[in-house]
Design goal:
By secondary structure, this protein is α/β, with parallel strands linked by helices. It has helices spanning 13-18, 20-29, 44-47, 61-70, 75-86, 104-113, 134-141, 153-161, 176-187, 211-224, 238-250, 266-274, 285-292, 307-310, 339-342, 346-356, 393-411, 427-456, 462-483, 490-499, 508-538, 542-550; strands at residues 4-8, 34-40, 55-59, 96-99, 118-123, 129-132, 194-199, 227-232, 256-259, 278-281, 297-300, 318-322, 369-376, 382-388. It contains 22 helices and 14 strands. It is globular. The termini are far apart. The model has no long low-confidence stretch (mean pLDDT 93).
Length: 551
């Protein structure tokens, strides 16, 4: 009998589209696998575009959340409704449940199915939340060190829900009827040589480039090529689109305009994007749709968006990012200036568009931006190669170092990507940090073993246990405050923090054993990591100077 997998993905349209390569990876892992998908009722139309799904299962999770918030009904009865809806699925006998949504509703649902292979957020027997699978735990926490992250969430979904394998692009299904509709719709506006999709707005103004800059890019392009622009977006984005069009006309725009803002269904929008030869966009759901129909994307990445996380996935796509010290900013930040948006020059974006359309050589750029080209690396993962501008050397070094570290740790296979032969750019600081951490971690391991021994006693000496646990918590917090700012050890501290909260045991003794194991694993990881950095530095000519300096 073929394997059966259930995927839960109930929050965002973009997450559904970025999940598509996971389906191909599952088919590669288990040929003939049957995949069912649970979605929120609101996104059922998006699920219909995704190939490879046996059954789309819809529930109004948004209503459940709304009624829970306003206490229209008690929480128990709300979840009883969800359980009754899901009850027939218990008979399927899924071999794996993959939860790509990290909230309590999806976590309870995962545990309800009782599948032995759970991936993503679920609940322990005592009702506490936990995250299973190292890639899924990484997904929850990578925003803490997002400057060091080099995994697109497309790959995190595929690696966590299945495992390593071949590269699979995002692909969406467009029916022949929709293709015909799109050609007719565009034909009513004109027949330019090239259609370019333009997404001026975004769900969050923080991650939207200024509308007037989009207008200037369009004007410049129309003066160089016979182009048409397909303006897309929701009704809420109409004001921004009108502002872009006004600037376009003021700048002498000559192209054909096809206005589709608020006029299309999701399948129609995808069909329109398939007809385009290029899309210029903020980081949005339609950006991923364009990727899914193999339309090249030029993503203007501003605000709190980090294209390494959610940028256009795979070869043929490009990103322009401002080179600014505060960017990408945190999701909780309220920016008073939005200066990152003004560092990207519209004329330079237009010249890059012309290059991508084959109309001119690769342009030159100001020193205030970085330009990246999407690709696939030797590990069959999506990546970006810098084509203009420069990265901060220390961050770039550690970003690739940690990408390879986590890949090997989670897959047990070394990365096939060649690593630079250079040593850590801040090894003297690493050595000092190691000396501080080593003694602290030794002491913490002794303390946690003492707590474990107390949990094994009968009866448990509760007062003594509480005192030792309190001291362990205080000393652990002190250690983490020291380790977390370090690029060499901080990511390990964050992984350790998550491990101490992902406890599966149901008894005090069992949880104490898992808790103690997390400390010892952390201690081992830190020591192994320092040894590796030291070995790399041992081949560096700077080591002689460093040894002399401290000698």
């Amino acid at each position: 009998m073929n394997k059966q997998v259930l995927i839960i993905n109930i929050t965002r349209m973009g997450d559904l589209i970025q999940m598509v390569p996971l389906l191909s990876r599952l088919e590669e892992e288990w040929p003939g696998v049957a995949i069912d998908l649970i979605v929120d009722k609101e996104f059922a139309h998006v699920a219909g575009l995704i190939p490879g799904i046996r059954q789309v299962l819809m529930f109004d999770f948004q209503l459940l959340m709304d009624e829970s918030r306003v206490r229209a009904r008690d929480v128990v009865s709300l979840y009883q409704d969800l359980a009754r809806w899901a009850q027939p699925l218990l008979q399927v006998g899924y071999d794996r449940v993959v939860n790509l949504t990290f909230n309590r509703r999806s976590a309870f649902l995962v545990k309800y199915f009782g599948c032995p292979d759970e991936r993503g957020m679920t609940t322990a027997q005592d009702g506490s939340f936990m995250v299973k699978n190292p890639w899924m735990r990484y997904f929850v926490d990578f925003h803490v060190y997002r400057q060091l992250n080099r995994f697109n969430i497309v790959d995190l979904f595929a690696l966590g829900g299945s495992g390593p394998g071949s590269f699979h692009p995002i692909r969406l299904y467009v029916s022949p009827d929709m293709q015909k509709w799109a050609r007719t719709f565009l034909g009513q506006s004109g027949r330019p040589d090239v259609w370019i999709g333009i997404q001026v707005g975004a769900s969050d103004p923080m991650k939207a480039w200024r509308p007037e800059y989009f207008g200037q890019v369009m004007a410049r392009l129309s003066q160089q090529r016979q182009v048409g622009f397909v303006l897309i977006g929701t009704k809420k984005e109409e004001a921004d689109v009108k502002q872009a069009m006004q600037c376009y006309r003021q700048a002498g725009g000559l192209g054909i305009l096809c206005e589709a803002v608020g006029q299309t269904t999701v399948p129609q929008l995808v069909a329109l994007l398939e007809q385009c030869q290029l899309m210029v966009t903020n980081d949005t759901g339609p950006m991923h749709m364009a990727v899914g129909v193999n339309t090249p994307v030029l993503n203007v990445s501003v605000g709190h968006v980090d294209f390494w996380e959610t940028g256009p996935f795979g070869p043929g796509h490009w990103v322009v990012q401002p080179d600014i010290i505060c960017g990408p900013c945190g999701f909780d930040k309220v920016c008073p200036h939005h200066a990152c948006k003004d560092q990207i020059v519209p004329q330079e974006v237009a010249e890059l568009c012309l290059h991508l359309l084959g109309a001119c050589p690769f342009p030159s750029f100001s020193s205030k931006v970085r330009v990246y080209e999407g690709g696939v690396n030797e590990d069959q993962l999506g990546t970006f190669l810098i084509r203009a501008g420069s990265e901060e050397p220390r961050l770039a070094w550690y970003a690739e170092y940690w990408r390879q570290y986590w890949y090997k740790s989670f897959t047990s296979c070394p990365s096939r990507v060649p690593f630079p032969l250079t040593s850590p750019p801040d090894f003297p600081e690493c050595e000092q940090m190691w000396r501080r951490l080593a003694s602290q971690l030794d002491q913490l391991c002794i303390q946690v073993d003492t707590v474990l021994d107390l949990c094994r006693q009968r009866p448990i000496p509760v007062d003594t246990l509480k005192a030792r646990q309190h001291q362990l918590t205080v000393d652990t917090f002190t250690m983490q405050q020291i380790a977390r700012p370090s690029l060499a050890f901080g990511p390990l501290a964050m992984a350790f923090f998550r491990d101490t909260f992902s406890l599966e045991a149901a008894t005090v003794g069992g949880m104490a054993e898992e808790y103690a194991r997390a400390y010892h694993v952390f201690r081992t990881r830190v020591a192994e990591n320092y040894t590796r950095l030291d070995e790399m530095f041992s081949h560096d000519p700077r080591r002689v100077l460093y040894v002399r300096a401290i000698g």
